[in-house]
C-alpha cells in the first residue's frame, strides 16, 4: 500500500514528465513554424522577383508599341501635310495664273474701249459728212428738176420719174460694187479675227501635259519581300494577277516590282493592294482576294470623288451622277499617252475662252468641252465610235441638245447643227496637237502608217495613198480612167472593211477616195 509520500513522488514525477513533454513539443513546434515561415518568405520573394521581371517586360513591350504607333502617326501626318502643302502650292499657282489672266482681260477691255471710242468719233464724223452730202444732193436735185422743166417742158412728176429711174440705175451699180467690196473685206477680216481669237485662246489657257505609261513601279524596302509576293510555287503572284488583271514582273531589279497593264485602273488597284499586303505582312491567296476587293471599292469611291471635285472646280452644275462618275474615270484613262481628264479639262477651258471671245454661252461651251470624250470611258463594250456613244449617253442623261450635237460632231460623225460644235472640234484639235501633249513609239507609229498606206495601195486602180492626221484619215487617189464613180464608192467601203479586219488602231480611221478627171488636148 502506497504511502502519501510515494504518491506525492509519483505525481511529481508525472508532472515533471508532462512539463518536459510540453516544453519539448513547444520547441519542436517553434522550430517547424520558423522553417515554414522562412520557406514562405523565400517563395514570396521569388514571386515578387518574377512579377517584377514580368512587369519590366510588359513595360518594354508597351513602350515599343507606343513608339511604333508614334512613328506611324508621325509618318501619316507628314504625308498628309505634304499633300496639303502641294495642294496649297498648286492653288497658289492657279490663283497667280487667274490673276494674270484677269489683268490681261482688263487690259484688253481698256484697249477695246479706246477702239470703240475712236470708232464712235469716226462714225460721228462720217455721219456729219453724209448729212452735208445729202443736203448738197437735195439742192442739186432741185436745180436739175428746174432745168428739166425749162428745157423739156416736162411736168414735175414726169421729170421726177426720169430722175428716179436714173438714180436707181446708178444706185444699183454703186450698190453692187459696194457689196462686192464689203464681202471681200469681211472675208479678210473674218479670217484675221478668227486667227486672233484662236491665238489668244491658246495663249490664255495653261496647258498641263501628263504622259501615261503602260507600267507602274512598286518600290520595296528589301528583296526578301519578293519571295513572299511570289509565294510557294508562285501561287501568291498568280492569285494577285488573276484578281487584278495585270502582269506582275518580279525580276533582278533591286528593290522594285514592275506592274504591267494597259488599264491604269487595274494597275492602280494592283499597286495599292501590294502596298497593303506588304504592310500587313500576311500574303496568301485568300488574303490577296480580300485586299483586292477592298482596294477596288476604294478606287470606285475615289473615282466619284475625283469627278465631283472636277465639276466643282470647273464651275459646272446639274450633271447626272453617272456622268460625274465617268468624268472621274477619265483620270485613269489616256489617249496617245495624254491623260484623258487633263485633256478634257483643257478643252473645256479653251472652249469657254473662245466662246467668251465670240459672245456665246461660256457655261454651255465649258460643259460640252468637258464631256466631249465621255464615250471613251464607257465601261461596257460597244461598236459605236466614242463620239456617237458619248452623244447617246448625253441624250440619255438629259443634256442640252447643243451639247449633245457638239459631242457627236467633234470628229465629223454627224452633221453640226450648232455654232458650239465647231468650237469643240477646234479646241479638241488644239489640245491634242500641243507639242509634247501626246506620245507614241516612233517606230510602231511609222510602221502603222506604212501598213495603212500599203493596204490601200494593194487595191486595183489606186495610184497614190497618204495617211494623214496621225493616221486618223487615209486619202486615196485613184485612176479616173480605170475606176468609175460607182466603183470609187465601193472601193472606200472595201478598204475600210480590210482595215477593220487586219489592223489594230485607236479610235477610227476616215477613208477618203478622190477621183479626179482630167482632159488634156494640144494645140499645134
UniProtKB/TrEMBL annotation:
The chain crosses the membrane at residues 6-29. Keywords: Cell membrane, Endonuclease, Hydrolase, Membrane, Nuclease, RNA-binding, Transmembrane, Transmembrane helix. It is a single-pass membrane protein. Residues 93-114 are annotated as: Disordered. InterPro entries: HD/PDEase_dom, HD_domain, HDIG_dom, KH_dom, KH_dom_type_1, KH_dom_type_1_sf, Ribonuclease_Y, RNase_Y_N. One of its GO terms (cellular component) is plasma membrane. GO terms for biological process: mRNA catabolic process. It is an enzyme of class 3 (hydrolase). Its EC number is 3.1.-.-. Pfam families: HD, KH_1, RNase_Y_N. The keyword Membrane applies. Residues 340-433 form the HD domain. SMART domains: HDc, KH. HAMAP family: RNase_Y (MF_00335). Endoribonuclease that initiates mRNA decay. PANTHER family: RIBONUCLEASE Y. Belongs to the RNase Y family. This is Ribonuclease Y. The gene is rny.
Amino acid at each position: 500500500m502506497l504511502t502519501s509520500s510515494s504518491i506525492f513522488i509519483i505525481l511529481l514525477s508525472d508532472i515533471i514528465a508532462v512539463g518536459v513533454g510540453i516544453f519539448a513539443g513547444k520547441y519542436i513546434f517553434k522550430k517547424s513554424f520558423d522553417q515554414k515561415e522562412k520557406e514562405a518568405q523565400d517563395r514570396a520573394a521569388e514571386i515578387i522577383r518574377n512579377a517584377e521581371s514580368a512587369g519590366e517586360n510588359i513595360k518594354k513591350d508597351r513602350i515599343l508599341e507606343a513608339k511604333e504607333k508614334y512613328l506611324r502617326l508621325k509618318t501619316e501626318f507628314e504625308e498628309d501635310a505634304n499633300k496639303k502643302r502641294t495642294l496649297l502650292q498648286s492653288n497658289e499657282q492657279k490663283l497667280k495664273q487667274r490673276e494674270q489672266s484677269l489683268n490681261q482681260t482688263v487690259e484688253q477691255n481698256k484697249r477695246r474701249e479706246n477702239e470703240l471710242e475712236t470708232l464712235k468719233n469716226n462714225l460721228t464724223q462720217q455721219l456729219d459728212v453724209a448729212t452735208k452730202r445729202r443736203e448738197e444732193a437735195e439742192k442739186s436735185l432741185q436745180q436739175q428738176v428746174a432745168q428739166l422743166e425749162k428745157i423739156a417742158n416736162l411736168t414735175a412728176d414726169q421729170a421726177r420719174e426720169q430722175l428716179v429711174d436714173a438714180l436707181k440705175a446708178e444706185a444699183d451699180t454703186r450698190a453692187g460694187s459696194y457689196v462686192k467690196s464689203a464681202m471681200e473685206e469681211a472675208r479678210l477680216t473674218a479670217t484675221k479675227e478668227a486667227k486672233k481669237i484662236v491665238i489668244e485662246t491658246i495663249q490664255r489657257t495653261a496647258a498641263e501635259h501628263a504622259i501615261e505609261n503602260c507600267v507602274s513601279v512598286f518600290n520595296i524596302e528589301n528583296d526578301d519581300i519578293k519571295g513572299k509576293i511570289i509565294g510557294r510555287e508562285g501561287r501568291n503572284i498568280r492569285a494577285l494577277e488573276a484578281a487584278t488583271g495585270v502582269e506582275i514582273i518580279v525580276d533582278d531589279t533591286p528593290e522594285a516590282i514592275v506592274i504591267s497593264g494597259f488599264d491604269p485602273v487595274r494597275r492602280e488597284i494592283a499597286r495599292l493592294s501590294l502596298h497593303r499586303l506588304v504592310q500587313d505582312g500576311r500574303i496568301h491567296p485568300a488574303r490577296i482576294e480580300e485586299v483586292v476587293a477592298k482596294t477596288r471599292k476604294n478606287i470606285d469611291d475615289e473615282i466619284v470623288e475625283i469627278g465631283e471635285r472636277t465639276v466643282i472646280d470647273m464651275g459646272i452644275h446639274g450633271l447626272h451622277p453617272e456622268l460625274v462618275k465617268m468624268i472621274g474615270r477619265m483620270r485613269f484613262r489616256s489617249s496617245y499617252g495624254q491623260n484623258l481628264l487633263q485633256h478634257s479639262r483643257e478643252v473645256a477651258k479653251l472652249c469657254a475662252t473662245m466662246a467668251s471671245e465670240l459672245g456665246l454661252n461660256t457655261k454651255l461651251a465649258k460643259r460640252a468641252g468637258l464631256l466631249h470624250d465621255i464615250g471613251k470611258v464607257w465601261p461596257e463594250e460597244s461598236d459605236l465610235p466614242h463620239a456617237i456613244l458619248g452623244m447617246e449617253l448625253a441624250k440619255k442623261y438629259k443634256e442640252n441638245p447643243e451639247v449633245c450635237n457638239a459631242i457627236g460632231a467633234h470628229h465629223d460623225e454627224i452633221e453640226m447643227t450648232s455654232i458650239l460644235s465647231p468650237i469643240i472640234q477646234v479646241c479638241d484639235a488644239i489640245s491634242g496637237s500641243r507639242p509634247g501633249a501626246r506620245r507614241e513609239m516612233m517606230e510602231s507609229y511609222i510602221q502603222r502608217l506604212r501598213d495603212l498606206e500599203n493596204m490601200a495601195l494593194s487595191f486595183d486602180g489606186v495610184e497614190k495613198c497618204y495617211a494623214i492626221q496621225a493616221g486618223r484619215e487615209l486619202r486615196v487617189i485613184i485612176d479616173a480612167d480605170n475606176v468609175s464613180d460607182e466603183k470609187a464608192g465601193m472601193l472606200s467601203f472595201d478598204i475600210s472593211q480590210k482595215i477593220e479586219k487586219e489592223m489594230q488602231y485607236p479610235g477610227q480611221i476616215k477613208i477618203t477616195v478622190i477621183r479626179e478627171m482630167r482632159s488634156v488636148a494640144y494645140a499645134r
